[in-house]
Fold this protein.
Amino acid sequence: MLKNMFLPAVAATLLLGGAASAAVVDGSVTSGSGVFTKIAAPVEVGNNNHDSPDLLAFDEMQGVLVTSAMALEIGGLTAGTRVDSHFVFFDALTKSTQTGWVSFSGTIVGVATSDASLNATDAMFGAAGTIYNTPTYRGLESKTDKAAIDAVDGSILTLDWASLSPGDYVRVFTLASIPVPAAGSLMLLGLGAAGIAFRRKKS
């Protein structure tokens, strides 16, 4: 009896343990200042903390369950779904312009581009240990900044913006990755199922 209870438990653990997180994959600056650089979550961000000419991005919280629907400037979050969050920004030392793109391993479902949306999502989706400063105008300015989900590839965010103090920042939400069992996990599951079948036949 104990063995019959143990094998399904192992199977569930193996299936759940194979989850992978969506992440920033790549990016490029196609015109203007700097190059694309993926960084680790910084100690502090949001108010002239980097003074870099580059297009910067880092991964934040992964697999967060959305409990309440939220409309964003681009797309939105649907209650009951799990999402991963990522922070993309341009924080140059002097006034600079930049056009580029950033790609992710998951489909983009929403982008927070305003001060209000960034402030509302910092606590739930911000990277653990990172201080998010909240000055006015850390979001995009409608006259000079543009962000959009690529019309052909929904995992790419395109950007055309001008960096002024305190910098330009957006939070990108992608669908959380679906758990996929590793090859070894599938082998163990197969052996477990064969064992159950053998015992039933023997009894």
